[in-house]
Amino acid sequence: MTPSIRAAASADVRSIADLALAAARRRAAADPALWPVATDAETQVHRALHTALDTPEAPVRQRWLVAHIGSRIVGAGHGLHLPVPPIYAGRWGMPGLIMPDTVVADTAPDGVAEGLAAAAEDALAAGGARILLAAAILPDTWTAALTARGYAPLTLYPAKSGLGGEMPDGVRLAAEDDLPAIAALSGESRAVLHRLDPFWEPHPQAGPRFAAWMTKTLALPDRILLVSEGADGVDGYAVAQPATPLHVPPGHEIGGLGIVDDFHHSGLADPDGRPSKGAARLLAGIEAAFGHLGRRTALAVCPAAWASKADLLRGAGWQGGQVWHIRRPV
Q1: Terminus of the chain with fewer CB atoms < 10 Å: N or C?
Q2: pTM over 0.90
């Protein structure tokens, strides 16, 4: 029997939550360090669903859909309109994002994932999204469906557990005097990103906006801003910080998870080259910083087309995690 798809309602919360909690347990079984189930998992999931379904004026526009056969819900899709980070131009407006907590029941018939993706795309496009993104946690059942619908990898988020160790020589905490060098390195990184993909077009005010954020970052106690130094001075920087709910579905323990949301080294400036030893030292410093923060597992942001950065992470044991895909305007 072919499932029907409709907008979710408050009365669906229990059924969606059951699917979400089952998915959380599957993720935890596949990678218990990355996806531990929270002690209050059921409360988290119910709260998130009620917030999305019962708060129409929420700051972030989001929508849940359900696939059902009769009264039985066999899948749920979650999409939202993603604000553009202030250092990017956002030429196409806010992208629509199919969230990683989208879920399909083990017993669902073939085609439910594709149907939910199509319905979520229609809902996001109706809300004004011209670019569509979709997040998939690995291992997943979504990648084939997304590929069939014209998506391609945009950003990798490989993970690593057991982080810690000593800070390597040549890597240290950043200071205010380092901010001009960090800003210059960020400009180099943005230029590489834009060459790799027009999606990453910088905002005209990207430089001062980034500099202001780094100044604030220095004062935030929950993250660490690092720099690496070579023969000619500062040649790399990184921010080790807490993970956010954008990358962690409700039902999982987020407190011990970090994310490398921004890092660059001059030894990665050639996206098709070989990562330098200096870049490897900076990555080792990132791992030590997470240990200092008490976050033994982390995700790292890596543009899918930036081969040298992907090779650096893979060589150091960062793998799996999740992938964000993109479907461009036609």
Answers
A1: C
A2: yes
